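User: Could you check the structure of this?
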Amino acid sequence: YRGYSIHDLAEHSTFEEVSYLLLYGRLPNRSELDTFDSTLRADRSIPSEVVTIIDAVRESHPMDVLRTGVSALAAFDPETRDNSIEATIRKGLRITAKAPTIVATHERLRKGLKPIEPNPNLNHAGNFLSMLFGKEPSDEETHIMDVDFILHAEHGANASAFAARVTASTQSDLHSAVVSGIATLKGPAHG
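Assistant: Sure, the predicted structure tokens are below.
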């Protein structure tokens, strides 16, 4: 990942640090990481209209729900039409913050449970587990999820990353590119 060994990152970093590295090309200092983490924590909630959409399609495959949820987020993003690099990074952070909320909301709704609001006191991995299972995860559970997020953060040139790049290359918006990637990832031949 940007010249760093995945083994070193998985052992010594957090998902937030790795996300920063992938976006900006270097690991953050403490101040940059705190700001980055605060931004993710502040953007975790999804609009009630998106929850309604997730509820309407709750019997669908989880990948279909994630694709639909990310697509719906575009309608509520204030910068959907701004394709500048700065706006695209901000949109990417918002999608990164909200995607776990979409997944957890779907899982709870399809089980007949009420969605759980994001917990700003937990990191990205811990918050996801908390929203998913309805209880604060242990440090070990959080660490395992954090490492899983790190391992999945960089996809190189696999089919879904390629599909997202093709969509982005047409000067479409970031939400469309991410939706393309999710749709391709769903395919059984993805690998």
